[in-house]
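S.,

As promised, the N-(5'-phosphopyridoxyl)-D-alanine run. Input:
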Amino acid sequence: MNTVYLDGQFLPIDQARVSVMDRGFLFGDGVYEVIPSQDGKLVFLDLHLARLNSNLKALQIDYHCEMQEWTDILSRLVAEHGGGRCSLYLQLTRGVQQFRSHVSAPGVQPTRFAMVMQPNEGTRGMRVITLPDTRWHNCEIKAITLLANVMYQQEAKRQGADEALLVRDGLLTEGAASNVFVVYGTQVHTPPLEGILPGITRRVLLELLHRHQVDCRELPIPVEQLARADEIWLTGSTLQIAPVLAVDGRAVGNGEPGTAWRRALHWYQRYLQVRRGGQDVTSNRIGVPAGRGTGC
Ligand code: PDD
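Predicted complex:
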């Protein structure tokens, strides 16, 4: 039986209940994280909780996720799941209010929910389509209000693709559930953090590329420049770094995962091994170990 966590209790999933007056249900008034777990260890939990706490603050939800408490909760869910490779879903809404009002009442307690999501999709070659980015202007908040993202991925699926790359004012922003990197020769570009989610995988990969002296820049990427890309990668907590094989039906490079991607994924996965064990999980800094001699 899949065990979930809800407001201080560990319950079988079919016994977990949330009120219909929960502001998450009525307004989508909440935030979430997806945290990978590998070999029974939570990956970058410190970075996920830091982002979650900053989002809670941005929404003025009066709750702070303590590292130790959430390590214990999520580790127990992973253990009950049997370890291995999986992802944790963690959601906090503003909570239950006795009447429906856009304005929240004082004293409402947040609803805290976590579960193991299975399976972890893992890294794979992706086919993408481009779509206009019609979302609101606060995409840096990892809000549970994901209607636009749902519509983009439904449309991608309808067109036989795996993900949608979003375009605003002629510039790439991000994927419906991923960040994007584009490789031109020896240069790697990724859109700057304006109106996109500051992905944890993006942040770690950028740091690793810099450490390995790859010429990597945060720059606006005009959508028409995708046609001359040698490689395109998508990043996300469950995807890690995934190669894009085709955009709108046109092959990227030779239509195969590229050598730069292979190297970047190798660095990333080696880094996960080094960081595994959670020794440095209390730090808010990425703490990427220096290049040589660290195993990266
Ligand atoms: N999505 N951009 C968007 C819009 C996302 O939804 C995600 C992740 C990312 C990548 O962020 P990170 O590297 O922190 O996972 C970028 C998650 C996994 C989801 O909604 O399921």
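The radius of gyration is 19 Å. The mean pLDDT is 92.

- D.
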